[in-house]
Write a structure and sequence with these properties.
By secondary structure, the chain is α+β, with helices and mostly antiparallel strands. It is built from 27 helices and 38 strands. Strands 11, 12, 14, 16, 17, 18, 19, 21 and 23 form a 9-stranded mixed sheet that branches. A 7-stranded mixed sheet has the order 27-33-32-31-30-28-29, sandwiched between helices. A 5-stranded antiparallel sheet has the order 1-2-3-6-5, with helices on one face. The relative contact order is 0.07.
């Protein structure tokens, strides 16, 4: 073995590391003559090595030929191949690009001559699936998987030892400062070069303070999106494979994670906070010490700086390296994202991600003042102004009004308050725009005050004046700095540089003045008055609640995750919640839902509230009636009569008799009992792929596989199903859908011939559960006639689609030009209040007495009846059915236009504001894009839209917003959908 085989690389002794110049033809010769593999070679990109994919004549991938840069020795290559085998053995669930071996176990590698000198060539296992490279957005699940893999590799290599690990690499973050110093001269733009040097100096200084206690071990050091391979069987980019151990060395263990995090930052829509799932996942597998957590983001910044400097250097010394040049813009974007927030903010955000935040404790660390900040103003004189999502003052959309904070404060002062103060760290809904794809800065890092009388601002303790200009004073306050921001007309009574004693006058303020006060760490960065919720834990750790300076108690922050854990502990988990990590929604207004973080979401799913959330007329009607009477319908009162008269008048003859219940499930259950009782026949025919409710009878006729995967196999013997009349993806499509009706009729006739005539046929009148697919023309006419011919009744489920949602028709059965015998309705009737109804003919209703009596304690109560009347009034007065036609038509046209740009959009179903966007992997086979739909819903949530999947395959976006939605909101939805589809890589 040559002496050089024992050497290891020292980057700082190398002038450059250009990729070995090897053509595909030469690669084929090397593979055949030296490694015994005849194949076609396809060049792959690389920063410093020459890589080729070797294929058989039929195109089958056989192996990767890796010709290592001549600067790397056999000793180093042996370490990499040994480490790859170690990882593969420790984690068989991961696919690893291990070296291929001869039958005797020896590696298939050799040394070949290149223009740059002898280089080691070897065959590596080919991993199908492709890398995570490219701009595509990474979902939280993908990000977490990257963190998990990094943790698993770290644990597998922890005790690995090999002389080939003792290397000095430009990618080793232990040498980051030297690398940047050596290569930054290749950055031509002076402003970028300056930014790289400044960020490197700051991050390096922070890491050096921790370097002695940071654990070191062997690290892959390149677990990036370029080197993590997607699972070939997965529809989404989920990594399970690892390639390229070329940067294997001994370094800080936490650097493994830092390198991986940095590679996420260039992907579409990724901000620093989006990589935190990877931090948590890594920490679960390989727990981080507090020192490692503190060093992590500085190392991310150093990695970004090294990438920029190295990329510019490589492009300069290796002019033909298209791979290196193509990465330049991406590497700069990584640096921009890594330095987007001050390092201390990201350090505390990382610490918060792996354990309880210290922000809450810090919020109470303001030292007790010697004197109150405002002389002669007691805590009892101060009224707290609640601007949170749960504040009563935010009712009726007040949060959207310009200047609302000042008006609310003025009202409190007019009512006798001496002063009004806001809360520290409690998100302000008043700062949330109604429609925004990015969260707003809603979390305050200080307090605002309004004065109802003249006041003197005095030094709360001895301190130094750091700044004093018209409208602003900064004064030291123990280990913190107190910043007071006044109107510019206020001239402080202290001078910059002066020392003040406790109680000394700082400023005189007149009645009506408002000002802002904030406490921050003296050695920390400037803290904005308001910060975004995703970064609040990082910013608040650098500040403190100034309330104690006013004599008020410090306020803490509620922990959202605690509430979710409490829910799971006592609320049956079969009652699922939307999203894996749901926002906490505590308010709604019209077509908006508001979280406790002060984020407004566009509500695209709530057909329960057709008038919109928190409709004032409903609220006032309920409140008024609750002040008077609420009891059951056995008592005699007017509202139940008025409501049932109004409801019956909306239906054609002979549907003139109303039963009132509390839900759609109850309505369907009662509708079936009415049909069975009136017909004397117990068999029921129902549509497949339908959902009707959770009671015994309504569940029995529900055949949706998503609601019950065993639905068809567990139906009672009195339920008979007919084919789903889906003209898009059913057995009969397009014009052939007319065949569904006769086929259903044949089933009904066969039942009768077998001695089991159907007592009822039940179906949605517009196929809601399938995403708003219209039934084929004439379908219900054929089926209703058949069931009636054998003595049965037609039951129409209008729970989802009725009440004007379809726009052109108030009831879904009107679209089919039929009249059912029994109509079941709920959801929209109460605008969120539990209210349902069954409407039928008097003759059918009277037959119920044969089964006993009917009574619902709260169905038809005075409150429920008043709600029902109010909803009908508002639907009419606000022309919400007409709005469904106008806005729904606009929305459908815009979504259809998206289909020209996104092949994943198979169809846009529906009418009015009951729409469905069906996503498919292929427009011919119609293979459902279920995983893609779920990922899209998660991305839409991050962009400010709440939308959910429906259908048996969960591949349809159900679009059924409150009927008050306007064109602006509809456009926001489509624009956001467009953005999300593009970020997730679905464009043609």
């Amino acid at each position: 073995m040559l002496h050089d085989e024992y050497r290891t690389i020292d980057f700082f002794t190398e002038d450059a590391l250009p990729v070995p110049r090897v053509t595909p033809a030469e690669a084929e010769r090397i593979a055949a003559e030296h490694l015994g593999l005849t194949a076609r070679a396809q060049a792959l990109g690389s920063q410093q090595d020459a890589n080729f994919l070797l294929r058989a004549e039929d195109g089958t991938a056989l192996a990767i030929l890796k010709i290592t840069n001549p600067a790397f020795s056999a000793l180093e290559i042996d370490a990499q191949d040994t480490a790859a085998g170690l990882i593969a053995s420790a984690h068989p669930e991961l696919r690893i690009a291990t070296v291929l071996r001869h039958p005797d176990g020896s590696p298939r590698r050799t040394t070949v001559d290149t223009e740059s000198g002898p280089a080691i060539a070897r065959l590596l296992r080919y991993l199908p699936g492709g890398t995570l490279s490219g701009p595509r957005h990474l979902s939280p699940a993908t990000v977490a998987a990257m963190g998990t893999i990094a943790g698993k590799v770290s644990t597998a290599l922890r005790d690995f030892r090999h002389p080939g690990l003792e290397r000095v690499l430009q990618w080793d973050l232990q040498h980051a400062e030297r690398v940047v110093a050596k290569l930054a001269g290749h950055i031509d733009e002076p402003d970028r070069r300056t930014a790289i040097h400044a960020a490197t100096a700051d991050a390096w200084a922070r890491v050096q303070r921790l370097a002695d206690v940071l654990p070191s071990q062997p690290v892959h050091l390149d677990l990036t999106d370029d080197n993590l391979i997607r699972c070939p069987d997965g529809r989404l980019p989920m990594p399970d494979g690892i390639i390229d151990l070329g940067d294997l060395t001994t370094s800080w263990a936490v650097g493994e994670l830092a390198v991986s995090l940095s590679s996420m930052l260039h992907h579409d829509g990724i901000e620093p906070h989006h990589v935190l799932p990877a931090v948590r996942a890594f920490h679960t597998v390989q727990p981080l010490s507090q020192e490692e957590a503190e060093a992590l983001w500085p190392l991310v910044v150093l990695r970004a700086a090294v990438l920029v400097a190295s990329g510019r250097h490589q492009a300069a010394v290796d002019e033909d390296n298209a791979y290196a040049k193509a990465a330049l813009d991406r590497e700069w974007h990584i640096f921009e994202q890594a330095t987007r927030l001050p390092l201390p903010v990201m350090i505390h955000l990382v610490k918060d991600a792996i354990g309880p935040t210290d922000a809450t404790a810090r919020a109470a660390r303001a030292e007790a003042p010697v004197h109150s900040l405002l002389r002669d103003l007691a805590a009892a004189d101060i009224t707290i102004l609640d601007l949170s999502t749960g504040a009563d003052s935010m009712d009726h959309g007040a949060w959207l009004e310009a200047g609302i904070e000042d008006r609310l404060a003025a009202t409190a002062l007019a009512d006798g308050a001496v002063a009004v103060a806001t809360r520290y760290a409690h998100a302000r809904l008043t700062q949330a725009p109604a429609l925004s794809a990015v969260s707003a800065a809603t979390v305050p890092t200080g307090i605002d005050l309004w004065l109802g009388r003249d006041a003197v601002v005095q030094a709360p303790a001895a301190g130094k004046i750091l700044a004093s200009v018209p409208g602003r004073v900064e004064i030291t306050c123990g280990p913190q700095v107190l910043t007071l921001s006044f109107p510019r007309a206020v001239h402080p009574m202290v001078s910059t540089g002066a020392t003040v004693q406790a109680g000394e006058d700082v400023a005189h303020l007149s009645s009506g003045t408002s000002f802002h006060m904030a406490l921050r760490d003296a050695d920390g960065p400037a803290v904005p008055p308001l910060v975004r919720p995703e970064y609040a834990a990082g910013w608040l750790a650098l500040s403190a609640d100034p309330a104690p300076l006013l004599g008020l108690p410090a306020t803490g922050r509620t922990q959202h995750r605690d509430l979710l854990d409490r829910r799971d502990a006592v609320f049956a988990t079969v009652q699922e919640h939307y999203y894996a990590n749901p926002p906490r929604i505590e308010r709604g207004w019209r077509h908006h839902l508001l979280s406790t973080d002060g984020r407004a979401y566009l509500d695209i799913v709530n057909n329960v509230t057709p008038l919109g959330h928190a409709h004032p007329r409903v609220e006032q009607a309920v409140s008024r009636q609750l002040r008077r009477l609420n009891t059951n319908s056995r008592f005699h009162y007017a509202s139940v009569v008025e409501f049932t008269e109004r409801l019956a008048a909306l239906l054609p003859d002979p549907l003139d008799t109303v039963f009132l219940v509390n839900s759609g499930s109850e309505a369907v259950d009662l509708g079936l009992r009415l049909a069975i009782g009136a017909s004397g026949r117990h068999d029921v025919v129902a549509l497949r792929e339908a959902y009707h409710g959770w009671t015994y009878a309504s569940d029995a006729v529900s055949t949706s596989l998503q609601d019950n995967p065993n639905a068809l196999a567990t139906r009672p013997n009195w339920v008979h199903t007919v084919d789903s009349p889906n003209s898009y993806r059913g057995r009969h499509r397009g014009a052939d859908a007319v065949r569904y009706g006769p086929e259903a009729v044949a089933v009904i006739d066969e039942l009768a011939a077998a001695g089991h005539p159907a007592g009822a046929f039940i179906g949605e009148t517009f196929y809601g559960n399938a995403g708003g697919v219209a039934l084929p023309d004439g379908y219900l006419a054929d089926v209703y006639a058949a069931v009636r011919r054998h003595g049965g009744l037609a039951v129409a489920d209008e729970v989802q689609v009725g009440y004007g949602r379809l726009g052109h028709w108030f009831w879904g059965f009107e679209q089919q030009q039929v009249v059912p015998d029994i109509v079941c309705v709920a959801k929209a009737m109460g605008n969120g209040h539990p209210l349902g109804a069954v409407i039928t003919s008097k003759s059918v209703a009277d037959r119920y007495r044969d089964q006993g009596y009917f009574f619902s304690s709260t169905g038809g109560s005075p409150v429920s009846s008043v709600v029902g009347l109010t909803v009908l009034d508002a639907l009419h007065d606000e022309d919400l059915q007409g709005n469904a036609v106008r806005v729904g038509g606009h929305l459908k046209r815009r979504m259809k236009a998206l289909a020209d740009r996104y092949g994943i959009i198979g169809a846009v179903h529906g009418s009015g504001l009951y729409l469905g966007l069906e996503l498919v992997r292929d427009r011919v086979s119609l293979e459902p894009a279920a995983e893609e739909t779920a990922e899209l819903c998660d991305r839409m949530l991050d962009l400010g839209v709440i939308v959910q999947p429906t259908g048996d395959h969960l591949n349809i976006l159900k679009i059924k917003p409150p009927l008050c939605i306007d064109t602006t909101a509809a456009d926001f939805f489509v624009d956001t959908l467009d953005q999300a589809l593009a970020q997730l890589g679905h464009s043609h």
